[in-house]
From TrEMBL:
Domain AB hydrolase-1: 65-316
Protein name per Swiss-Prot or TrEMBL: Alpha/beta hydrolase
Stored Gene3D superfamilies: alpha/beta hydrolase
Hydrolase among keywords: yes
Record-level GO cellular component terms: membrane
Source organism per UniProt: Gymnodinialimonas phycosphaerae
Protein's UniProt keywords contain Hydrolase: yes
Family, similarity comment: Belongs to the peptidase S33 family.
Entry GO MF terms: peptidase activity
Keywords recorded for this protein, A-Z: Hydrolase
């Protein structure tokens, strides 16, 4: 018994020493940007009782409003601001979704697909109460846009969907299976451990900051995995302000029935849909978006060369030309 006890104590002391060394070795100034509730200089609106980081780029009077939905869940609209160039003809609205980016953090029961659809409805009523807007959704934002379309098809003039990863339950299963390839291995887990220790040194500006720092960095590791085709081989360089850690669980929480409902209801929208894909992306790129095309009554697929998952950031010139062409054919009511 004494031998077992001594061995156990030895292992325990070694573990404590390793933890202590890692805590010291990972000390640093890890900054996390403040949220709208702490930084009054950030543009914001209260929608459905939640303070959202929301930015409007005004266009000509009485023009079409374009609402931009970022990816994630948990991301922000920073990398999509190349769409500002459209403001010579259109009014552009960006917002960080609840619990994400620089918007107010909320309890987990507010982080649902239903809550996000309700929030989007609130944003639409606030920024375009008398005319139907156009939606531009990237990745998760494209899934959200499609879900809204199926529920309120008469409220949207047209929609641009940039590389939704899936639009039904079977698609989610395939996405999750593939994603595990980029969230495993010695390098990934070493980075996860080190980032976990670094997160212990994050001192505010709010209680969510350490988790946001941790998950945000690991999302960056995921998208920059050398075998992840989200980029064209030079890394996933699209910038962000801050990740919302709690929001990242939304996709797993959506029931298979609700996911299939998204695809089934998409056909209720009679307007035009443009699916955009980066030519470099062999995962959620052109091939997958051509499969998604069948869910809609009137849809086209546009492939952007020299672009990965975030086509707006990777190749803004070609992307904006395609979106301008799409918008020119849309008439709001």
């Amino acid at each position: 018994m004494k031998t077992v006890f001594k061995l156990s104590m030895g292992v325990f002391l070694i573990a404590v020493a390793i933890v202590g060394l890692l805590m010291v070795a990972t000390r640093g100034d890890y900054r996390v940007l403040p949220l709208v509730i702490d930084d009054p200089a950030l543009p914001s609106r209260v929608i459905a009782g939640i303070n959202l980081h929301l930015r409007i780029v005004e266009g000509p009077p009485d023009t079409t409003t374009v609402i931009v939905l970022h990816g994630g869940p948990g991301g922000d609209f920073r990398s999509l601001q190349g769409l500002d160039a459209l403001s010579d003809d259109y009014r552009i609205v960006y917002y960080d979704q609840r619990g994400a980016g620089l918007s107010q953090r909320v309890e987990s029961d507010h982080l649902t697909l239903e809550g996000h659809v309700t929030e989007l409805a609130g944003v639409i009523d606030h920024v375009s109460p008398h005319a139907n807007p156009v939606l531009i959704g990237h990745s998760w934002g494209a899934i959200l846009a499609t879900s809204y379309l199926g529920r309120y098809p008469e409220r949207i003039a047209g929609v641009v969907l940039i590389e939704p990863g899936f639009l039904n339950a079977a698609g989610r299963e395939r996405w999750e299976e593939r994603s595990r390839d980029y969230m495993s291995g010695l390098t990934y887990w070493r980075e996860a451990v080190l980032t976990g220790f670094r997160a212990q040194h994050v001192d505010g500006p709010d209680l969510s900051a350490p988790d946001d720092f941790l998950i945000g960095h690991m999302v960056d590791v995921f998208v920059n995995h050398p075998h992840n085709p989200y980029h064209c081989g030079q890394g996933y360089t699209a910038p962000s302000w801050r990740f919302g850690a709690a929001s990242s669980d939304i996709l797993e929480a959506i029931s298979p029935r609700d996911l299939d409902d998204i695809a089934e209801r998409a056909a209720d929208f009679s307007g035009h849909v443009m699916l955009m894909a980066g030519a470099c992306n062999s995962w959620t790129g052109p091939e997958l978006q051509r499969l998604h095309q069948s869910h809609f009554n009137d849809a086209e697929v546009v492939v952007v060369n020299d672009a990965g998952h975030n086509v707006i950031w990777d190749n803004p010139g070609v992307s904006l030309t395609a979106i301008r062409g799409f918008l020119s054919g849309i008439t709001t009511h």
